[in-house]
């Protein structure tokens, strides 16, 4: 039975937003890949904020990058819930973060700020007003896991743990250390280190994982829709089967068939 989410606890991921160079093409790719519906909401002259939906419930969003931001690549921006954006922004600044935009109100929906943490990754904070963020969680075809790749794991780890009160656990995984972030022993996100093998043009970043019923089928569908497969479908012991995909405009995301949770 579907349970509609009514609140995201502080320190948990609450929203995923695609900033796209070609909003219409991006909408076509993702709605076909994940069987999403959509609601285009006007936000200006020939500008829309598209609510991506599962069975009519908002679960993520996308919008067209304005001409003034044309040099920015298409990318996913992840939001973390907080009780007080302004207070959290001041704490983030004291911990070495840079404010990229805000804090500001988004009409009556809520209040947000976009930050760059000391390790270089960009993310946003959301203080809910009338819009809590994703109305569904822990279901298929929704953002399911959130992963940071950092060039300085200790610097990033210290920042997030001090900002959100996250705890962490380092787990050895196939020749590398994987950091698991938790709140009250519940997994929140993960982190891995960008080694010298990573291309120089890939910056530190947060990446969303979308839960799927069948990883291999989703990879085949993404390929048919002109997505590029960065990491083919691969098993992670005791976790599931995943793949890393680049959409036709260059935004990177992952999919995961979980063996931990029974999702519908």
UniProtKB/TrEMBL annotation:
Domain of life: Bacteria
One Pfam match: Glyoxalase
Protein name, per record: Glyoxalase
Organism: Pseudoalteromonas gelatinilytica
Matches recorded under PROSITE patterns: VOC
InterPro entries tied to this protein: Anthracycline_SecMetBiosynth, Glyas_Bleomycin-R_OHBP_Dase, Glyas_Fos-R_dOase_dom, VOC_core
Record domain VOC: where: 12-128, 142-258
Coiled-coil stretches: none
SUPFAM superfamilies per UniProt: Glyoxalase/Bleomycin resistance protein/Dihydroxybiphenyl dioxygenase
